[in-house]
Specification:
single chain, alpha+beta, eight-stranded mixed β-sheet, 18 strands, about 35% helix, disordered N terminus
């Protein structure tokens, strides 16, 4: 049996726009011929059903370690996309690829299919087409698993040519045309599977701990649950302004008030803010609340969730990133003090009582451009400047300024501080956790302070939410809460940027 030389079928460079237009015209003409000859060629260019008996991955799994030049006698019918092709006089070769990236060679010979069918293959089949082939499973002289085709049929005619699969797609092409990325790159397909495994793992872990998954509104009459700029829209049915949610927190807490004492949601959030390697305006978010927990129990939960996800995607707490780097997510993670580490970095004691004038001086000395009425904002900016970038291993940063965390319980022993942590991995924030504020009187006071900031022009300040306060007045048990970006969790597991972890990210 002859052996395919698939490289020769591919151009050295990507086709120009004019060449693509010409190829499209040629392929459209082939589509018309397929439709016109549908009776002879079995269903035209886009048949509704094909006599498939198995899949490419199943054939590869069944026939492993075969010697070269073997005819198995096994007849199969499979379908796949042609990603490499070479036509010769009496024998044509094609490499068929399935959705998971598995490939198998198809050999179309004059002796097996006849002169008319071989001629039709040469004339009508192109790279990128989906085809069905039926025939015997064999190995070539070089041992390549193949199908010796006895009959074939177009499954879906591709009108546009594939990019050169020997060249790496640039980032813009990968993001804007993810379907091409999925065809061309194993890493792109792996990202999709890793995300699915991660979400399944999160749900398994929660289920094992007695948490209930719920869904809360995406469209809200009042945005809240985080400090962020919202997207604004209008409901014609209700003739009112609505907001795409920035967080599900205030609704999940209503569920806790109602008696769903362990509750979580995995869903989309929307924040009308900048986009960079760690931020996307639309992103997937996990939030969870546990009655009678606190921020330490939520830190334990978050570590378990992430470590279980690592096991689900990599089989180990040591994950391998896309660039080959190994990253250890195992063990117990460090828990450090925001104020303590900042004090060490600047060489003087910084507390919640440090005057804002001194914090402004420290910010100026560090070259931090900030103008804000809250002292806590300066503390957080100074901490990020001095400490954040050095946190590579997973680290919980504990105890934040009270004035920047209006939904968090005051620290049980330290004035001016709240029981909040942020989890940093690879130098970026991955998750956050609280001992939740459940006192409706204090919560109202915090909302009023936020409303003042909003009145002064702060677009990220929360509004006073009377419906949420009314729910709290019916009594919410002491609780812990946590939130984690799913996209960022995939960044920690894969080492990729956020646009690579989102299947279809928002782009201009």
């Amino acid at each position: 049996m002859a052996e395919t030389q698939t490289d020769s079928a591919l151009p050295a460079d990507e086709p120009t726009a004019a060449e693509i237009s010409e190829q499209k015209a040629v392929r459209l003409a082939k589509r018309e011929r397929l439709i016109a000859a549908s009776d002879d060629l079995g269903g035209g260019a886009y048949p509704v059903r094909l006599p498939i008996t198995t899949t490419i991955p199943q054939v590869r799994a069944q026939f492993t370690d075969l010697e070269a030049d073997v005819a198995t006698g096994e007849q199969v019918g499979i379908a796949g996309r042609i990603v490499f092709s070479r036509n010769t006089g009496k024998l044509c070769f094609a490499t068929l690829q399935s959705g998971d990236g598995s490939r198998i060679q198809a050999m179309v010979s004059l002796a097996e299919v006849g002169e008319e069918s071989l001629a039709a293959w040469k004339e009508l089949v192109d790279l990128g087409d989906h085809v069905f082939v039926a025939g015997e499973v064999i190995t070539s002289r070089r041992g390549e698993l193949s199908i010796m085709v006895s009959s074939w049929q177009i499954a879906a005619k591709a009108i546009l040519p594939l990019p050169n699969l020997h060249n790496d797609l640039n980032e813009e092409t990968r993001v804007r045309s993810r379907y091409l990325d999925l065809i061309a790159r194993e890493q792109a397909r792996k990202n999709v599977l890793d995300r699915a495994k991660t979400n399944a793992s999160l749900r398994r872990t929660f289920e094992g701990l007695g948490f209930v998954e719920v869904e809360t509104p995406m469209l809200q009459v009042m945005h809240g649950g985080a400090s962020a700029r919202p997207f604004v829209t209008h409901s014609n049915a209700f003739d009112t302004e609505l907001y795409l949610r920035i967080a599900p927190e205030l609704y999940l807490k209503r569920a806790v008030v109602g008696g769903i004492e362990r509750v979580f949601e995995i869903n989309r959030n929307f924040r009308n803010e900048g986009a960079d390697s760690t931020h996307s305006p639309e992103f997937a978010m996990l939030e969870a609340y546990e009655a009678y927990g606190d921020y330490t129990t939520m830190a334990d939960l978050t570590q378990r969730l992430i470590q279980d996800a690592a096991l689900a995607t990599s089989g180990s707490h040591v994950v391998t990133w896309a660039d080959g780097t190994e990253f250890d997510l195992g063990g117990d993670w460090d828990r450090i003090s925001m104020y303590g580490t900042l004090s060490e970095a600047v060489g003087e004691q910084i507390t919640a009582e440090t005057p804002i004038e001194r914090l402004k001086q420290l910010a100026d000395e560090a070259g931090i451009e900030i103008e804000h009425p809250l002292p806590g904002k300066y503390v957080e900016e100074l901490w990020e400047h001095h400490i954040k970038g050095g946190l590579v291993r997973p680290t919980f940063v504990m105890d934040f300024p009270l004035d920047t965390s209006p939904l968090v319980r005051a620290h049980r022993s330290t004035a001016g501080v709240v029981e909040k942590w942020d989890l940093y991995v690879r130098g970026f924030e991955l998750a956050t956790g609280y001992s939740e504020l459940v006192d409706p009187v204090v919560q109202r006071e915090r909302f009023i302070e936020q409303a003042k900031l909003a009145a002064d022009g702060d677009p990220e300040a929360m509004r006073l939410d009377e419906e949420f306060l009314r729910a709290l007045e019916f009594g919410m048990p002491p609780s812990g809460g946590m939130g984690m970006g799913i996209d960022r969790l995939l960044m920690a597991l894969t080492g990729l940027g956020i646009r690579e972890t989102i299947l279809f990210p928002l782009v201009k």
